[in-house]
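Final paragraph of the annual report: two paired records, presented back to back.
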Amino acid sequence: MRLYRTRRNFLLEEGGQFYRIESAGSGTQAWDTLVTRDDLADYLRTAVAKAERVEAPGNDELEAPIGSQEVWAAGVTYYRSRDARMLESKSSGGGDFYDRVYSADRPELFFKATPHRVVRPHGHVAIRDDAAWSVPEPELTLLITPNRQIVGYTVGNDMSSRDIEGENPLYLPQAKVYNRSCALGPGILISSAPLPASTEIHLEILRDGQAAFSGSTTLEAMKRDPASLADYLYRNNTFPYGCFLLTGTGIVPPDEFTLRARDEIRITITGIGTLINVVG
């Protein structure tokens, strides 16, 4: 099952068919009430049995699948990511930090976005105007309830300014947190079970209609267990509306590549869908 938020209602996709889920409204409060349920999968299975079948939503109807949730992120969870972070921070002497994080028990976790900074599917993500080296980071993203239950998965784009982060590790918040620096969607795969290690993540960047970069990885290349990342995030921390947690990237464009205005970013995760955004 995949859950979508649109401008007018909440939709559930099952077996290639779409159904409108009855709820107390279609706004943020109703969404928060729905996605903070620990029994979300069971609830939706019951709801779809009596739901009205509808047409698939158009691209302009889709909203980011977020209400009042915070968005957090993990870093250095793939070997490829560790290498890239060490290289970009070499001049500042910070490379050793990332090697130590990769091998440590405690992961790197950082705040990524409030809801108003999150871009909807087919919306415009941003690159900082004071950055010279910007990339998207395609990431499996967890939906976690206030009671620490992973109830779903979506596609996340952790937009990053690599030159700012590489200049000094303490600049990480500026490299990562700014308006339209995050995108989520198109919907949420509702499942409490871990995804298979064979799950593929694919990134394609189109420039003037042509492929400027493409790359793929699988969850098998991920060193950190998503459940462990969620456990560390909730240590001495509470999330009354639940939260989203981006779990790191294993796809890094080459050093000579940087995003430009009007580039189209397409991130596909097996079983979840494709998140499409344009730089603008």
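The closing record of the year follows.
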Amino acid sequence: MADITASLVKELREKTGAGMMDCKKALNEVKGDLEKAVDWLRTKGLSAASKKAGRVAAEGLVGVAAVGTRGALIEVNAETDFVGRNEQFQKFVSAATMISLDQGGDIAKVALAPYPGSGRDVQGELTNLIATIGENMALRRAGALSVSDGVVSGYSHNAVAPGLGKIGVLVALESTGDKTKLAAFAKQLAMHVAAARPQSLTVADLDRVAIERERAVLAEKAAQSGKTPDIIAKMVEGGLRKFHQEVVLLEQAFVIDGKTKIAKAVDDASKQVGASVKIAGFLRFELGEGIEKKSEDFAAEVAAQLKK
């Protein structure tokens, strides 16, 4: 048997976009001949994925999994919303979400983890799925939360299947109190996070660049009022307090009633569960956020394909 080195597998993977296990198998089949391995993968339909890699993938699904004191999210992108309704794709995202839970939300580890029942790693299975469905897809990001004592609750918004949707949220609560009541409160908080889009848990956690940007905008607006410098300073500080109420979780008004501050709701929950409650963290993934979506005239796209 030919000596199949890691560098040779890596080179084939870069050439074809196929999964690591598929590349290794191809090289074994052709006794280490790189070009024959490329052809072997092509005959199996596994190198087709590389041709699709440049296409924008901003649709897909966000997977959510929460089990007791642990939870994980993963975003897997595809090119069209249609793929999000594909059963094969949904099955893959569900499996990848549970793998993300086991890998602590580390996307690099998820990609290299074995995919159940396939003989491939997760990235390899996705590459196989790309060849099967015919769209570019990508493991974009993953995350996880855990607590030593308490609960982690998940929520999936616009769900197409259990734990799969357009927005995924995790909320982790630390408490020694009643876990059933704690879980119910965590679920409400997760739904709030989905709707209210907080940027941080506390004011101290808020990105300093975002604060200074907001301060500059407020100062510019206040200066146009013609007020004295001391009044302008007060206007800016008042504007910043309002900004905090919009983007800081503990400062936001609970969507349940639209008026109770989240910090107060946490205090009230402590009384309900019989022990102190602390929000240990939250995660919110919205499908495709931050991806620049390419907008094209469909007729022009067809014409472009005909010219090839």
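The longest helix spans residues 229-247. This concludes the annual technical report; the extension proposal builds directly on these records.
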